């Protein structure tokens, strides 16, 4: 049930990059590199959505909203609208992500017991188009924090052990899914598995995020309430009526060490019917849902190869302009994410039957894995990705439950699907200092 808030939000955004005169939360000057920046962030309470050198990092928790079930998106949207609608805002920046911001992470399924969450931080550091700013947020009669504490060194993970689910059992389950698809029950079903990583010491989230951002700069590195990773898939980005989405489906995971050889092999393999059909289902599901919300929508005529350090994907970008409602407003980024989720890239086709098969056959509760993760601003603009290539921190901070999945179609081979999940676990395992095993 949605709890109505009577607290009055104050938000102030101002540049700290030297172009204008303002006090920096980093004592007297900005960090000079990624490591310097990370050491000067608090070791806990971080929220992040960063791609390359741009994005948002928040710390301190001003407000939190948790919700579950089929109404989780609507409840969170209502909470944020109520909190931000009457906010006292002083925004001298006026760039995407300035002004009041909330970070969010949502459950994949209506049935998960793990809460979806929106977090309003006390301080947000933003960077966009080369400009750097700070947003401070507070309630009435509260001072707005602007300073960080003393730097603390990053701690590499030590003595991490990994326990993976049974390969034979998972491949047997994938085989059952293939049989059900061939029997005509669905066209595509995305199946996921998990693994548990455990350290003797608490894990330093700052180190993990820094490693992911440095090694996967074209992905969106995220952390919200213990859910962290580096996703290559952008569910929706909306700014001033312009909307963008990136769909991935189809994966090439061999790595010969020769870039040109791998790209040519990927081009050949991903053109085959299995991967091209899987990708088409994902694109079609996006277009079917997004088109009614847009006055115009353009999708790449042909998918392109998205090259990551460990895999190559088939990818398609969609760009459009949102329509106005009768009252002149536009649908918010969170409402769009709710409408799109789950896409065929993480659920399957047709959506309803695929989700039923996942509930019946998948051995793990995904929680917030493969659910929307990102941020929303007071106007409703924001960016939401799919929480992929990552995991969920244990409550004691010493372990991570890792997830990976793949799209299963009638031509899928269980052995190859297992190897695909191994490749998709690699980013987080590398950040944890664990050598990937096949």
From TrEMBL:
Keywords: Isomerase. It is an enzyme of class 5 (isomerase). GO terms for molecular function: isochorismate synthase activity. Residues 167-424 form the Chorismate-utilising enzyme C-terminal domain. It comes from the Bacteria. InterPro entries: ADC_synthase, Chorismate_C, IsoChor_synthase. It catalyses: chorismate = isochorismate. Its EC number is 5.4.4.2. PANTHER family: ISOCHORISMATE SYNTHASE ENTC. Belongs to the isochorismate synthase family. This is isochorismate synthase. It comes from Spelaeicoccus albus.
